[in-house]
Amino acid sequence: MTAASPATGDRPALSDLRPARVPGLRVSGPTLRGTTLIHFVQSPRGGGLLEVRSKEHFIISRLDGSRSLGEIGEQYAARFGAALGPKQWEQMLGLLYRRGLLATGAADTPDASATAATAAAGTGTLLNGNLLSGNARLVADAPALIERLYRVTAFARRRAVLIPVTGFLALMLGYLAARLGDLTDDATYLIDRPGLLLPVLTLLWVTQGMHELGHGVAGRAAGGHIEEIGLRWHWGTVLMYCRVEGVQFFPRRRAQVALALAGVFVNLLALLPFAIAWALVPSTGPAGRLLGGLVMIGVVWGLANLIPLPPLDGYKALGYALGIDRLATESRRFVRLSLGRAVRRGPGIADYPVRLRFLYGAYAAVFFALPAALGVAAVLASRRYLSDHFGSAAGDVPPAAVAGAFVLWLLGMVGARLRGRRGAKTQSPARPEPRPVAHPSPAEGNRPMPKHQTDSGIPAIEVREIRKEYGGVPAVDGVTLTVARGEFFGLLGPNGAGKTTLVEMICGLRRADSGSVTVLGASPWPRDVALLARIGMQTQSSAFFTRLTALEHLQTVAALYGLGGRTARDALDLVGIPQQARVLVEALSGGQRQRLAIATALIRDPELVFLDEPTAALDPEARRDLWSVLRALKERGHTVVYTTHHMEEAEALCDRVAIMAHGSVIACDTPGNLVRSLDAPTRLYLPAAKLTPEAALRIAGVDRAVVDGSELELQTRTPGPVLVAVGEAVGFDAVRTRTTSLEDAYLALIGMDGAR
């Protein structure tokens, strides 16, 4: 039995369902990113890559149609020590269904999907694109070309051929190393003669194209798909490229490593006849010196690709061999965390096992030391060459150029910082003079919390082109948005989208690299005590005085702010837990703790409140109960900025929502407008036994009728008349409807952004 849709009516129990993943679904092996194991998943329908962690991968790998969700749940609980509830199952199946990862019927055939994918990949025209824009497609049907090369070279890929050839190449490199001095002289001889150097470089450019075709053949041999062959403008020259798709799904790491090293292997193989000729002809003659220079430059050209620095082949091969994704990025992050811990700032590296500390630390040393060493070697070699040919004064040019470039780089960094500060000052509205926080008298502190008077003239939050990077990776990238006073504003997006960083910059907890932020008419940075008194914040990891009662906890917080005890009782009343006033904080339920966290954020009756997933980890009943508290905040005039992963919650509570992905806001509008932007049809579901698709299509207004398991799904843009007609035919009790929701709009927008 396959899952037709995550939303089901009167069907067997959820635990009895036996959903199956779509045929041809690709699931990768484990890959490390930082300290987390991830897996890549891709639908054969041509969808983008989906990253899942170990728990999600455990479930997906067992959705084969033969095991029920109950059986998978038992295995999951035994493996991870926690059971999945019905709501978690529904969310998981809903995500897989909308991503096209669950089988839904006969249309899910591997052949059809593969044909569609191949047709899509094979489209294109000769030299589609423009070199000035970066890339230009060179071959209209790249998969067909690589397939032909794959068949032609079949004999050469056998072990009986590969092993002897590899050994012979090793002997060649050993022989060349033994005669390195002669080769260096020959290379110098060639460099001094531009008329000879130009054809040599042209020949090496051709071998670079062979290098890329070698990647393509190795990728085809491992089961990858050749996406494109073309030319690109790179490092001041035009180079060929061959793009292999699906490397993450190769069955073995050694196949990934072989793909990365195949290009260098082809480079050396192309140089083999020239090396043999050089060894046979007289080394002092012009032909010998020409061949020696060609071999020397070609070997350096080829072996330079083995340097383990991005984006070279050696870096890719090392990452594949270690099973680590983004090795350079994660190593830099490890170094930042290590240095932060050394100065007692940041979380440190306690989460890193010893093996990862060694790997990331060792690669970080290579990453920083190797470019420096290569740069010094290049400067010294250039200095020596220029001194020998143009005099000692010319030899001083390379180190002077490097020193000048370094000074310019430093000045650029300082200038960027100064421009950022000046921009923040000039773009932000005038800040009011900071006022000391007055501690009210007990009488004032005991007054009931007033309802806020909103000022629609000045926005509560105004963000303009704000940016924040960590180690060159943008966390927030050019975000611009405005939140009106009294607005309930939702901030949605997947993990890592930049929501937390954006909120921290708005609150003044982090400083933006560029752009401007205005909160309640003032700049949050540098930190303003008067402004902080007007802001409340609830986080997922709110801190409590757990050995105190709920009332004592709030009274303690109120006393820290100079407020009276009555304020604590008002806050408890506002969030609806006055009966828990005498209950210890550690004895409160999860929902009650979340309410207490919100009460803590409201203790000073702030104008602006930030709520970070306040309903996370709550059961559906507790979540619904908390909604009334959140609605009360809006009715009192509070401006609320609210992050959540529950789409139905955002749809029910928020006036507007902003959807973030990859550090940018990709959509910002009311939930209703976002839903309407999909222009999706209404779906009606009824038992397939009660109405055939042919009969359904004869009903006026039915656009599509599909049998999905035991149900018939109808799609229509005129649901009223269709519902009446279907209800009269099969009975209204047998019909259920499903309209487009904010979750559908969210998934569509996130999917569109990921595909770009």
Give me a quick take on this structure.
The chain is an alpha+beta fold and 756 residues long.
Helix tally? 27
Low-confidence stretches: 1-11, 106-133, 420-451
CATH class of the largest domain: Alpha Beta
Indicate the proportion of strand residues.
Answer: 15-25%
Query: What is the CATH fold-level name of the largest domain?
Result: Rossmann fold
Silhouette: globular
Radius of gyration: 32 Å
What is the tally of beta strands?
20
- Assigned CATH superfamily of the largest domain: P-loop containing nucleotide triphosphate hydrolases
Major beta sheet, strand line-up = 12-13-14-10-15-16
Q: Kindly, what is the distance between the CA atoms of the first and last residues, rounded to a whole number of angstroms?
A: 35 Å
Instruction: Supply the number of structural domains.
Output: 4
CATH architecture of the largest domain: 3-Layer(aba) Sandwich
The helix content, as a percent range, equals: 40-55%
Structural class: alpha+beta
Q: Averaged pLDDT, please? A: 80
Major beta sheet summary: 6 strands, mixed
Subcellular location: Cell membrane
Keywords: Antibiotic resistance, ATP-binding, Cell membrane, Membrane, Nucleotide-binding, Translocase, Transmembrane, Transmembrane helix, Transport
Protein name: ABC transporter related
Transmembrane segments: 160-178, 190-207, 257-281, 287-307, 358-380, 400-418
